[in-house]
């Protein structure tokens, strides 16, 4: 990158658990901060949403599921301290395996599970377009389903979002900065997306 955008990096951990609560995001974040307090101090640090499957007991983790933290590169030295830790997720235990650092790569199409924003879809997309302009990012927008994340304090509303036709520098910039609030709960964090259909 040739500008002042803060460089980010992904810390990837093997994980295992029998089941975790449906609304695991807040408890997961607080458990991570107990182990690495410096996470709380960086607004760009976030947790990429876990891949889960619903069941009557809660959320199941498929085999080979990973916990991925998007970290300020300056915090990379702290990531190893999480390896082997057992995280308390609302009374459930999420066991972490060994972690590794993964450099973020540019992809022309990126997807965020939930970007926070106002209810009206047209106005939401206008706000996103304005933010991308501020960041100097050119790309085409595909808005997915409106969603809600339930937290102990308040519900978090937004839309799933795909941005495609990104140039390499713009793709990195978007992955580094994200869009919207609540990155710590997995919102507004962009990851590679290979198919621009089925945007739920």
Task: Provide a quick synopsis of the model.
The chain has about 200 residues and is an alpha+beta fold. The chain has helices spanning about 25-35, 120-135, 170-175, and strands at about 10-15, 45-50, 55, 60, 65-70, 85-90, 90-100, 110-115, 140-150, 155-165, 190. The protein is globular, with a radius of gyration of 16 Å.
3D structure, described in words:
The protein is α+β, with helices and mostly antiparallel strands. The chain folds into two domains: 8-102, Alpha-Beta Plaits, CATH 3.30.70.1890; 110-192. Helices cover 18% and strands 35% of the residues. It contains three helices and eleven strands. The chain has helices spanning 25-35, 121-135, 168-177, and strands spanning 8-16, 46-48, 53-55, 58-60, 66-72, 86-89, 92-102, 110-116, 140-150, 155-164, 191-192. The protein has a five-stranded antiparallel β-sheet. The protein has a four-stranded antiparallel β-sheet with strand order 9-10-8-11, with helices on one face. A two-stranded antiparallel ribbon has the order 3-4. The two termini are 31 Å apart. The model is unreliable at 196-200 (pLDDT under 50).
Into which percent range does the helicity of residues fall?
10-25%
Order of adjacent strands in the largest pleated sheet: 2-5-1-7-6
Beta-sheet strand percentage? 35-45%
Please report the number of helical segments. Answer: 3
Give me the count of strands: 11
- Assign the structural class, choosing from mainly alpha, mainly beta, alpha/beta, alpha+beta, or little secondary structure: alpha+beta
Reading off the top of the CATH hierarchy, the class of the largest domain is best stated as: Alpha Beta
Overall geometry: globular
N- to C-terminal separation? 31 Å
* Radius of gyration (Å): 16 Å
CATH architecture verdict of the largest domain? 2-Layer Sandwich
Q: What fold name goes in the CATH topology slot of the largest domain?
A: Alpha-Beta Plaits
What's the order of the H and E elements?
Answer: EHEEEEEEEHEEHE
Task: Please outline the major beta sheet.
Answer: 5 strands, antiparallel
Poorly predicted sequence stretches spanning 5 or more consecutive residues: 196-200
What's the structural domain tally? 2
Mean pLDDT, rounded to whole units?
Answer: 90
